[in-house]
From TrEMBL:
SUPFAM superfamilies: Glutathione synthetase ATP-binding domain-like. GO terms for biological process: succinyl-CoA metabolic process; tricarboxylic acid cycle. Its main location: mitochondrion. GO terms for cellular component: mitochondrion; succinate-CoA ligase complex. The keyword Zinc-finger does not apply. Keywords: ATP-binding, Nucleotide-binding, Tricarboxylic acid cycle. It comes from the Eukaryota. It is found in: Mitochondrion. The gene is SUCLA2. This is Succinate-CoA ligase ADP-forming subunit beta.
Length: 221
């Protein structure tokens, strides 16, 4: 009975995550990978950390917008022609082309096409088309992707903003705190890894009680 219930629970997770029905065996196998749950009648379970939810930048921005947070206006392009049309639609004198790849360090990465940087500022729809053609369908190599790189299937074309100051803010799950942790720094920007390595005291970490949630004094800290 316990094994059956566990099996059913995994199936439900897999079906929801993929937004389409699957057979029980295929769905559970996709979630478990090589965990070996079904070997020897389900008696062997290999503990393995899996990251089952990874959001592209444009998805995160959509969630922020739904929560009432102001974001730069932009749209996703899956082809150079779409990038051209979006840049023209935005009507700005300059726009930003951002490779949508699930890896950090995109701005300092290199494409197999030879293009340097996964975040580029362009000044015309024609340039947006030319730059995106060197990103879409090409692998991007960063410190996080390693030698294998990661394919870029789409780009975010958005209006350019001119911030007076940049901050870093993130929410992550931390095992040592057994819950979520707020991470912030006044030294924001794309080089947060360097800040962590060189001046770790510039980064603030605030554990949040997973049952009580964030308190006002913590937010103001």
């Amino acid at each position: 009975m316990a094994a059956s219930m566990f099996y059913g629970r995994l199936v439900a997770v897999a079906t929801f995550r993929n937004h389409r029905p699957r057979t029980a065996q295929r769905a559970a196998a996709q979630v478990l990978g090589s965990s070996g749950l079904f070997n020897n009648h389900g008696l062997q379970v290999q503990q393995q950390q899996q990251r089952n939810l990874s959001l592209h930048e444009y998805m995160s921005m959509e969630l922020l917008q739904e929560a009432g947070v102001s974001i730069p206006k932009g749209y996703v392009a899956k082809s150079p022609d779409e990038a051209y049309a979006i840049a023209k639609k935005l009507g700005s004198k300059d726009v930003v082309i951002k490779a949508q790849v699930l890896a950090g360090g995109r701005g300092k990465g290199t494409f197999e096409s030879g293009l340097k940087g996964g975040v580029k500022i362009v000044f015309s729809p024609e340039e947006a088309k030319a730059v995106s053609s060197q990103m879409i369908g090409k692998k991007l190599f960063t410190k996080q992707t390693g030698e294998k790189g990661r394919i870029c299937n789409q780009v975010l074309v958005c209006e350019r903003k001119y911030p007076r100051r940049e901050y870093y803010f993130a929410i992550t799950m931390e095992r040592s705190f057994q819950g979520p942790v707020l991470i912030g720094s006044s030294h924001g920007g794309v080089n947060i890894e360097d800040v962590a390595a060189e001046t770790p005291e510039a980064i603030i970490k605030e554990p949040i009680d997973i049952e009580e949630g964030i308190k006002k004094e913590q937010a103001l800290h």
